[in-house]
């Protein structure tokens, strides 16, 4: 079982007037985690940037996230469909899961402009992250 | 049936290197639509800012959204639970729905720090927006 | 004397934990004002997007800007250099100037990748905005 | 001579349709560098968050900054006035200075709501960073 995580240091401008990190900043962090995860697999290099299209995101805000302590965004599972990846991610701060996200990314042929099967070797690589 | 929408003019910095509006900017627009909708109902005034807590969001990215044309974020339905509202929102650009969002907001007693029933008059008001 | 302004409705996520609009959001609004101003002059169309390069910005934060009231970003003057424009902008909320910005934009030949003189007709157009 | 720097990994959503990091993201990074610098000096703790007010920023965009390589934001000098600090910061990517920023921060008595002299011990601390 492989493990991939990104440490995010909350930035002051990501707080809002309620005193915590704003939900839109957390949606942005989720992109950071997803993209770095794909990059760790050799995907999403500049020359293939349009290979993965975001179909949807779902984010559960379980607890407030605050400025002042690091957040670990951990990829907790990847499900592989025919031409898509469903990437799950937990964000933890001070030992508690504060955010739980799930995103569906569709593999796309940038020339043909349509979805295309997830390559076999990527399929094997992400198997190690299956929940 | 009441209708509530917000017009958003995409900003250049909301684009990304793929040439379209970035998904994190769209999550942020969804907050704009939700909050202005609550404000239109007399909720979420500064003095009661902590009355509604975002429990989760789900966003389907149906088509790319681009810089250069206005986006209409339309509240397409509100479901009322015991102490929550589920707010649905479509974003349209150039006559096509590009984004479909759904958010669950929990009504919260800021002093007792726990969820509390949706007030009767708000329940009546939002009934008009039910899908 | 021509007048160009953009009305910006502050967004909740643009506040920070100090309860006001964060300075980075204001830098972003300044881009909105500059780009819409250039667009109003027929510049900065998608096909010529790389014609203007931002050389520098200076922003004075005179008073706090808050969520809840519209902000008018007014172009208060444009100085034309050989190959640059210096655009000044005041942001007003509730009748008071809260932000004063100044940006230098360099006109650039995207093919030759070097600065190039401001075209004569643009020079005439912006003369009307000189402070 | 002390040295303080923050390493920033550019995020994909911070790019814009011109393919580089947007200027508003860079203004936001500058806040990250300033605040972490103040925190490193024992200032700007949550309980004293309103002690430093941003009076102005000036940012020179010397070269484009890109996604894909880390940026080092280095505090290059601090000038101390009676009740203000002028903090200079260079951002470097791939061995070249791409951004040069300067911010004036005013020390403020949050109760009296007016500017107040920079404390002597802070004055001594920042002397080490003078350009």
What would the keywords be for this entry?
6 strands, elongated, 6-stranded antiparallel β-sheet, Thiol Ester Dehydrase, Chain A, alpha+beta, homotetramer, 2 helices, 131 residues
Summarize the model shown.
By secondary structure, chain A is an alpha+beta fold.
Multimerization status: homotetramer
Cα radius of gyration of chain A in angstroms: 15 Å
Mean pLDDT of chain A: 92
Distance between the termini of chain A: 9 Å
* CATH superfamily membership of chain A: Hotdog Thioesterase
Which regions of chain A are unreliable across 5 or more consecutive residues at pLDDT < 50? none
Most extensive chain contact?
A-B, 19 and 19 residues
Please give a structural write-up.
4 copies of one chain form a homotetramer. By secondary structure, chain A is an alpha+beta fold. Chain A has a single domain (4-127), classed as Hotdog Thioesterase (Thiol Ester Dehydrase, Chain A, Roll), CATH 3.10.129.10. Chain A is 20% helix and 39% strand. Chain A has 2 helices and 6 strands, in the order E-H-E-E-E-E-E-H. The first copy, chain A, has helices at 23-40, 120-127; strands at 4-8, 52-61, 71-80, 84-93, 96-109, 114-115. In chain A, strands 1, 2, 3, 4, 5 and 6 form a 6-stranded antiparallel beta sheet that branches. In chain A, a hairpin with a 3-residue loop joins strand 3 and strand 4. The longest helix of chain A is centred in the first third of the chain and has 18 residues, at 23-40. Chain A starts with a strand and ends with a helix. The model of chain A has no long low-confidence stretch (mean pLDDT 92). Chain A binds chain B through residues 17-18, 22-24, 27-28, 31, 49-50, 53-61, and chain B through 17-18, 22-24, 27-28, 31, 49-50, 53-61.
């Amino acid at each position: 079982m492989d493990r991939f995580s990104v440490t995010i240091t909350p930035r002051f401008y990501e707080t809002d007037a309620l005193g915590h990190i704003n939900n839109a900043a957390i949606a942005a962090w989720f992109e950071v985690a997803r993209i770095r995860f794909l990059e760790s697999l050799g995907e999403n290099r500049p020359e293939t940037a349009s290979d993965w299209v975001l179909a949807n995101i779902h984010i559960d805000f379980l607890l407030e996230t605050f400025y002042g302590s690091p957040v670990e965004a951990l990829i907790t599972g990847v499900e592989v469909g025919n031409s898509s990846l469903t990437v799950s991610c937990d964000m933890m701060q001070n030992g508690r899961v504060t955010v739980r996200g799930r995103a569906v990314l569709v593999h796309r042929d940038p020339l043909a402009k349509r979805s295309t099967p997830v390559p076999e070797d990527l399929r094997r690589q992400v198997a190690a992250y299956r929940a």
